Amino acid sequence: MSLDTYPVYKTGTENVGVQIIWTPADGPCAPPFSNKDIQTWLANEFTYQGRPVPYYGTACAETSTKSYYGNYGGTVKMRLVQYGAVPNGTALLGGFDLFKAYPGRTLRQPGNCGGDCEGPLSIYPGIGPKLYQLGTATFVVRTCTVSANDVFMNAVLKSQFQSATILETTPFQFNLSNFPAGLTSFTYRIDPLTPVIDAANGVFANETGTDKAQGVGLRLTNSAGTAAIRLDGTTYAVPSYSASTGGGASVPLNVSYFRTGSASDVQGGIVRGVAQLTLFYN
């Protein structure tokens, strides 16, 4: 189950919370546990000798004449959530207990409850609890910058499109600076601000207007010109970033005029497009 639907609880660090979900594993009889939200743990609704017991139940509907022995467990997911501004260098005070899981059992006993009645929870002796703690962390606010210049392409003649689809390939690049060392993932995505004509081929439309060329768009490729930059949300690794040193990097690309229809559709005018660079890093 997604953590997106679960509440966020305070960690003691301003504007930093934590989400927790426990998913019990299936046993031979379902469901093997009663499902209680983590809020039950904090509210201490169910306790055993003063300790929280949020999940309880038996593997099967056991009676005095039937028993089952097996191993059961579950999966715990936790994540930190930022819900406000966190200043650079803020330290998360970890080391405190989030919750404990106690192995135990409940036995069903005959009774006047319309069937077998669930007996009291018994903690297995000699088996300690599984303790889940929140570790320490320091939050670093990134101070990265991205710069790019306008790309000017040489003019071409309308007649040149009679025998060519792609003309005037021009290199350019986005320049990145002040990126920290140690990023485990650093990728980018390109999104044009005019309509995409052919996402797989990296082609997007020219701006519209009475002074704009018709039948001509723009095409983006990698710096070698060997592959199109897909315009469908595909991400690409920043090629020159060094995880060991950080610092500067660049995203080199090529842009070309691209004939979007037949040669007879081409009409003279200005070709202009705008593309947005989005960076993803952690």
Assign the CATH superfamily of the largest domain: Fimbrial-type adhesion domain
Strand order of the largest sheet: 12-13-19-17-16-15
Strand tally: 20
**Per the principal axes of the C-alpha atoms, what is the gross shape?**
elongated
What's the helix count?
1
List SSEs in N-to-C order.
EEHEEEEEEEEEEEEEEEEEE
Alpha carbon gyration radius? 31 Å
How far apart lie the N and C ends? 24 Å
Beta-strand residue percentage: 35-45%
- Number of domains in the coordinates? 2
| The CATH C-level class name of the largest domain | Mainly Beta
Helix-residue proportion = under 10%
Instruction: State the secondary-structure class.
Output: mainly beta
Give the rounded overall mean pLDDT: 74
CATH architecture annotation name of the largest domain: Sandwich
Main sheet? 6 strands, antiparallel
Give a written overview of the molecule.
- The strands form seven sheets. The protein has a six-stranded antiparallel sheet, with no helix packed on it. A three-stranded antiparallel sheet has the order 1-2-5, with no helix packed on it. It has a three-stranded antiparallel sheet with strand order 18-14-20, with no helix packed on it.
- It is mainly β.
- The protein folds into two domains: 3-138, no CATH class; 145-281, Immunoglobulin-like.
- The chain has one helix at 38-43; strands at 9-10, 16-24, 47-48, 51-52, 74-82, 91-92, 97-101, 104-111, 115-123, 130-133, 137-138, 145-147, 166-179, 186-192, 196-198, 203-204, 216-222, 236-237, 247-259, 275-281.
- Mean pLDDT is 74; it is low at 26-71 and 114-118.
- The two termini are 24 Å apart.
- Strand 15 (196-198) and strand 16 form a beta hairpin.
